[in-house]
Amino acid sequence: MISATPTQVMWKDAPTRTITAGGVTFAYRELGGTNPGPPVVCLIHLAAVLDNWDPRVIDGLAARHHVVAFDNRGVGASSGKPATSIEQMAEDAILFIEAMGFDQVDLFGFSMGGMVAQEIALMAPRRVRRMIITGSGPAGGEGISKVARVTYVDMVRGLLTFQDPKQYLFFTRTSAGIRAGKTFLDRLKERTWNRDKTITVAALQAQLKALRRWGDKQPADLSRVVHPVLVVNGDNDRMVPSQNTHDLARRLPNSELVIYPDAGHGAVFQFHAEFVSRALAFLAG
């Protein structure tokens, strides 16, 4: 497993900063800033804020790369009205990247963030060098328009069992999946200061609307995305059914596919050590 150097700021300690672009003040955190090469810009999942990134994954990537994560418009500590389309989220991400002064970046998109990454590559291909897309699928993919229903069902399951819904949404119900979910949720609590604001109900509803639109959209011509792409998921993803990951890899002409066994939507968090090692090798290619 790749670990951060003793002198490197860890994700749990990274200060929250802000930058304004397109009339939106984006909250972001960064680490590994002295590392060479294009920065890795992280694109977050549904209902998530900065504190939802797995510290093991972010710290592992930052051991060799400049890593930056930000809150979407109207989410967490970022200002503005929440976006209601994946395309608007991509436009905002491009604004953020330009405001940060990055000529070219690598993208790491998880779930909804993987959809945003696809749109960025289509809108601004020269800004992107490589992409890692996990727990995601192409526009119009099977079951994507039903993410809201799955989310609400598991939110209720979480309430009834006094558990975080991510235990159901991200992980399988096998002993290995349940154990991985618990340790992942514990890691999300490691940051004890300057924690981000939780997402509002209005922002969650806006994101669910964006996902419904994405799921109902005609598939894009991803043959135009010639960037190297690492496509990753578990073999039993309930949120974005795993067949979408296979479909996405087929549609991308320069992709590598990794499927983790006995794993769901949060496979990269369950297998964080293996994933970080594979991601670092891919980014160094």
UniProtKB/TrEMBL annotation:
Alphabetized Gene3D superfamilies for the sequence: alpha/beta hydrolase
Q: Which domain of life is it from?
A: Bacteria
Ranges for domain AB hydrolase-1: 39-269
Q: Cite the Pfam families for this sequence.
A: Abhydrolase_1
Name of this protein = Pimeloyl-ACP methyl ester carboxylesterase
Q: Which species is the source of this protein?
A: Variovorax ginsengisoli
